[in-house]
């Protein structure tokens, strides 16, 4: 138990340093509320929009009053995090699951700093863990600790199942962030439907060694998700070319899909420092929001 607490504390210190120094302002600007909520009424002034007249108060007082609204600051940020077997690819510090966990933790602590609700679900071909959106440091630490110490029940992937769970669970309009390598199919229709009701962001994780670049030899490859070993001819230049093309096609397909459905998309190379990539993504999102408004 002490080892777990030390790991959580170490991760918290690292993540909070990143949030405080880098992401606090970007997060607030990139995810600020888009809705309006009623604030107060005040006497009508020349130039006020007549559509804002509060006729109930006006009738009671005999004077014209208008409604004032303020931006709805509180957001609900929900992360859907892929913990299937393919996330274990890569060396310890470049592991897709580790990097995904750190990114999810950054978003969690950023939401805490901005007093937003934060929820998370981990998934394989089932929902592994679910944390209902809530506020507070205790809630955030519970999530970070749970993700850090989680042991999967399954290594397979079913993104559509996970999306269906979120679709039935997340009633309020929210910011839905999906962290995955997206090595799955059949989820696009449901995801496009969900993008009409939520702000959706896809964070794709990949490691460059997932595309073999060896010159010769037949190599054994163990598929973590299917638990089967296959032999691949890495010396076949035609096969290597097809493999690279297939891997690149995932990126192209996701990028095109996101543009068509107004979904934000960012790709993270787990071998590189992901902080600059996230910073750049946040700033681009801020610019896009300013253009749309």
Strand element count: 10
Order of strands in the sheet with the most strands?
Answer: 5-4-3-6-7-10
Q: What is the C-alpha radius of gyration, as a whole number of Å?
A: 23 Å
Overall morphology: globular
Mean pLDDT: 81
- DSSP summary: helix tally: 8
Biggest sheet details: 6 strands, mixed
Report the order of strands and helices.
Answer: HEHEEHEEHHEHEEEHEH
**Alpha-carbon distance between the two ends:** 49 Å
Low-confidence stretches: 219-225
The CATH top-level class label of the largest domain:
Alpha Beta
Strand content: 15-25%
Would you kindly provide a written description of the structure presented here, covering whatever features stand out?
This protein is of the alpha/beta class and 293 residues long. The chain folds into two domains: 2-30 and 74-292, von Willebrand factor, type A domain (Rossmann fold), CATH 3.40.50; 36-71, no CATH class. 44% of the residues lie in helices and 24% in strands. The chain has eight helices and ten strands. It has helices at residues 2-30, 55-61, 96-113, 137-149, 159-169, 188-194, 237-260, 274-292; strands at residues 36-43, 65-71, 76-82, 117-123, 127-134, 175-180, 199-206, 218-223, 228-233, 264-269. It has a six-stranded mixed beta sheet with strand order 5-4-3-6-7-10, sandwiched between helices. α1 packs across α3 (96-113) and α3 (96-113) packs antiparallel against α4. The radius of gyration is 23 Å and the shape is globular.
């Amino acid at each position: 138990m002490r080892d777990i607490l030390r790991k959580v504390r170490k991760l918290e210190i690292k993540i909070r340093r990143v949030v405080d120094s880098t992401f606090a302002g970007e997060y607030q600007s990139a995810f600020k509320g888009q809705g309006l909520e009623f604030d107060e009424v005040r006497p009508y002034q020349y130039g006020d929009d007549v559509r804002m007249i509060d006729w109930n108060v006006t009738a009671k007082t005999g004077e014209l009053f208008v409604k004032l609204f303020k931006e709805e600051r509180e957001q609900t940020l929900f992360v859907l995090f892929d913990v299937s077997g393919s996330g274990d690819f890569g060396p310890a510090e470049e592991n897709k699951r580790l990097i995904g966990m750190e990114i999810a933790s950054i978003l969690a602590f950023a939401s805490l700093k901005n007093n937003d609700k934060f929820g998370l679900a981990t998934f394989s071909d089932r929902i592994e863990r679910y944390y209902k959106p809530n506020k507070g440091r205790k809630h955030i630490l519970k999530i970070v600790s749970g993700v850090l110490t989680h042991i999967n029940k399954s290594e397979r992937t079913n993104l559509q199942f996970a999306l269906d769970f979120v679709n039935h669970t997340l009633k309020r309009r929210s910011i839905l962030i999906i962290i995955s390598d997206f090595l799955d199919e059949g989820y696009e229709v449901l995801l496009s439907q969900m993008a009409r009701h939520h702000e959706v962001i896809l964070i794709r994780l990949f490691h460059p060694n997932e595309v073999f670049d060896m010159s010769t030899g037949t190599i054994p490859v163990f598929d973590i998700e299917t638990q089967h070993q296959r032999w691949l001819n890495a010396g076949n230049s035609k096969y290597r070319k097809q493999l690279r093309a297939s891997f690149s096609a995932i990126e192209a397909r996701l990028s095109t899909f996101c543009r068509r459905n107004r979904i934000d998309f960012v790709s993270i190379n787990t071998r590189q420092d992901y902080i600059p990539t996230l910073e750049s993504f946040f700033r681009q999102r801020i610019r896009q929001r300013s253009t749309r408004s």
